[in-house]
Design goal:
The structure holds two protein chains of two kinds. In chain A, 32% of the residues lie in helices and 24% in strands. Chain A has a six-stranded mixed β-sheet, with helices on both faces. In chain A, 44% of the residues are buried. By secondary structure, chain B is mainly alpha-helical. Chain B has two domains: 309 residues, Orthogonal Bundle (ABC transporter involved in vitamin B12 uptake, BtuC); 104 residues, no CATH class. Chain B has 17 helices and four strands. In chain B, the strands form two sheets. Chain B has a two-stranded antiparallel sheet with strand order 1-2. A two-stranded antiparallel ribbon of chain B has the order 3-4. In chain B, a hairpin with a 2-residue loop joins strand 3 and strand 4. The chains are: A alpha/beta, B mainly alpha. The interface between A and B is large, with 44 and 34 residues.
Chain lengths: 256, 443
């Protein structure tokens, strides 16, 4: 992050706005995410962090403003279209395929990326690349031993790992993680940090996270979202010293 | 559901089992099915016209139910109008048969393909609208489409023959290899062939990328969208394929009965296929086959014994929904983990011990039902009737008291037997768990 030339943008938000009825939730967010960086979005509860993710990933359409992924506008498109352009996301509330096996969960998540689309003519058991990639991801997220278990019977921490596995299994260049360590114990969170570090290599990562230890450990840059507006975007050390940020977080410690 | 979960979890394929062995065993399964289909109409009891006709009906119902299972079990779409595609396939086929009767040179066994084509066409036509939503909205729209098509078939007399239907003769037309397709045995083999082909094709479909995504969309359509798949498109594909196979079943129906009437697209038939599939179990395609066989058998044989047969089918359905949501196939598969245990014998023995008093109670309940049913529907027939081969006078209190006593004693004995079933199960599960632990610990 020491280059002086303008850095290529993986994701650009330009004056993004979103209203639920008459209530503005996102009130003019502009943000550049550089290619290859790990960018954290923090902010108090109700600041609009999850809504922002839902706008970027296509779950909701913005009221106004634009979202550029690799320079091309994606605002208002369907989630599967945005995914096909190279953006994948995880969810704060675990969002897996509960009746499929752990392996099937991952394999279903690599099919589109590998170009199998709605194919009729192939037997998935014989798709070497899909099966190999699924096993590779299982190894990476530490669920290889649970390969044939039904996803719905996994423990909470295992399901969180699977959630990340589904997100990163494909070829998405930009990954959004929504509170990847929510509800985890210290030891589990530490493992999740190591996992996030390994899966974000060579990709752009944007994450919403409440655990400041995780944020300051992982992020190259941090944006602070308060009341639907970004009040600061900077390197972790500078964010810690920022007066406005401290005011927004009054009473909570940023020195976790 | 709890026991089904356990079964699915512990019955997972063993790691390291060579792929070729699996492929080999799958081939062996299908061969066994094919041989069974070949042999069935020659078994004693089934080798007459009645038996072969029953087998033919079961085959048609099985194809229809399996196509429905693709929708409900695999894709999570609850349709109340699946008979639309069955019926329109049947109409397409009967019209083709009439054309053959008039001189068109197509062998009769190919007729069901016209049904499949019609099913596919109308499935894509209606499916492009109905599959935009899942859940309750989809179910309600399917009901509406069903009523619409049924009304249309009653109005379009020239095409459908209305409630009387239109007929054709399967015996006319080219006779390949000297086969006339007149005798029921030949028709049965045509049906068995197409049923086997349909089962193979649908099983293969579920192994394709889009087939796997049907399961994913069933489980979580939103997540499927976030890994690149449009859930509406996946549903549309599943719906169209299911409609094509429903149309194939309709074609077999036309070939078997040589008549198609408006009821072929009606709500009754849509309800029956839902019943069959659910009773058989929606989690596996073969569950639908079990359900089709069971319900067809009940429809055909029970109606010989009692005019209240639909009531029994309904009670059976309610009982399955309440106590065995995994259906017949779920009940069978529940036993997979304990198949190799020594306690299996004790489990089966405990079943017999519980089944006998349960049967007693059922006999009592049936007696009460039959007495009341007869008094309500045939008040002029007098008070004397025969039940289980026994002559009764329902104006005396004795039949009523005997029935109530049977229910009470049977229920009481069944309650006594229940803990034994539970204990035998616990023992078997423990043994199965002890057996699988070292295997799990190894890697």
């Amino acid at each position: 992050m020491t280059a002086t030339a303008p850095k290529p943008r993986a994701l650009e938000l330009k004056d993004l706005r979103m209203r639920f009825g008459a209530t503005p939730v996102i009130r003019g967010v502009s943000l550049d995410v550089y290619e290859g960086e790990r960018h954290a979005i923090i902010g108090p509860n109700g600041a609009g962090k999850s809504t922002l993710f839902n706008l970027i990933s296509g779950r909701f359409a913005p009221t106004s403003g634009s979202i550029l992924l690799g320079g091309a506008p994606i605002e208002g498109r369907d989630p599967f279209q945005i995914y096909r352009r190279g953006l994948a996301r995880s969810f704060q509330v675990t969002n897996i395929f509960p009746r499929l096996s752990v392996f099937e969960n991952i394999r279903c998540s690599v099919l589109w990326s590998l170009g199998y689309r709605y194919s009729f003519g192939r037997n998935v058991a014989k798709l070497r690349d899909a099966n190999a990639r699924a096993d590779e991801v299982l190894e990476q997220i530490g669920l290889a031993a649970r390969r044939d278990a039904r996803a719905g019977v996994l423990t909470y921490a295992e399901q969180r790992a699977l959630e990340i596995g589904i997100t990163i299994a494909g070829k998405a260049r930009v990954i959004l993680l929504d509170e990847p360590t929510a509800g985890m114990s210290r030891a589990e969170a530490a493992r999740a940090v190591a996992l996030i570090r390994s899966i974000s290599a060579g990709r752009t990562l944007v994450m919403v996270e409440h655990d400041m230890g995780v944020v300051f450990d992982l992020a190259d840059r941090i944006s602070v979202l308060v009341y639907g507006e970004i009040i600061a975007t900077d390197a972790p050390a500078r964010i810690r010293e920022n007066a406005a940020v401290q005011a927004a977080y009054l009473g909570t410690s940023l020195h976790a | 559901m709890k026991s089904a979960d356990v079964a699915a979890d512990t019955a997972a394929p063993q790691p390291g089992s060579p792929l070729r062995a699996i492929a080999g065993s799958r081939l062996a399964h299908w061969l066994a099915v094919a041989l069974t289909l070949l042999a069935l109409p020659h078994l004693p009891g089934l080798d007459g016209n009645f038996g072969r006709s029953l087998l033919s009906q079961m085959g048609i119902a099985a194809v229809f139910a399996v196509s429905y299972s693709l929708l409900l079990g695999q894709t999570g779409l609850l349709s109340f109008g699946h008979a639309v595609y069955f019926g329109l396939g049947a109409y397409a086929s009967i019209h083709l048969m009439r054309a053959i009767d008039a001189g068109l040179a197509i062998p009769m066994p190919l007729v069901p393909l016209a049904g499949a084509a019609a099913g596919l066409f109308f499935g894509m036509l209606f499916g492009s609208v109905t599959t935009r939503r899942a859940g309750v909205v989809f179910a309600l729209i399917s009901l509406g489409v069903g009523e619409l098509v049924f009304a249309a078939m009653r109005i379009l007399q020239g095409f459908s023959g209305g409630e009387e239907g239109i007929t054709a003769n399967r015996g006319i037309g080219p006779h390949p290899f000297g086969l006339s397709f007149g005798p029921q045995l030949q028709v049965y083999y045509v049906i068995a062939f197409w049923a086997m082909a349909a089962a193979l094709a649908l099983a293969a479909f579920l192994r394709t990328p889009v087939g796997r995504m049907c399961n994913a969309v069933r489980d979580n359509p939103e997540r499927a969208a976030f890994v690149g798949y449009d859930p509406v498109r996946v549903r549309f594909v599943a719906f169209s394929v299911a409609a094509a196979f429903a149309g194939l079943a309709g074609g077999l129906h036309a070939l078997n009965y040589e008549i198609v009437a408006a009821e072929a697209v009606g709500a009754g038939r849509s309800g029956t296929v839902l019943l069959m599939t659910y009773i058989g179990g929606v989690q596996h395609l073969f569950g639908a086959v079990l359900g089709a066989i069971a319900i067809t058998w009940l429809q055909v044989s029970l109606s010989d014994y009692t005019t209240a047969w639909q009531l029994y089918v309904g009670l059976f359905f309610i009982g399955m929904v309440l106590f065995a949501p995994g259906g017949l196939s779920g009940l069978l598969l529940m036993h997979r983990p304990i198949l190799a245990t020594r306690a299996l014998g004790r489990v089966l023995a405990s079943y017999v011990g519980a089944a006998i008093p349960a049967l007693l109670a059922c006999c009592g309940a049936i007696a009460l039902l039959e007495i009341n049913y007869r008094r309500a529907t045939q008040p002029d027939a007098g008070t004397r009737m025969r039940l289980f081969g026994i002559s009764l006078d329902t104006s005396t209190p004795w039949p009523w008291l005997a029935a109530l006593a049977l229910i009470a004693i049977g229920a009481w004995l069944a309650r006594l037997a229940a803990p034994r079933v539970k204990a035998a199960w616990a023992e078997a599960m423990e043994e199965a768990a002890a057996r699988s632990t070292p295997r799990k610990g190894a890697p």
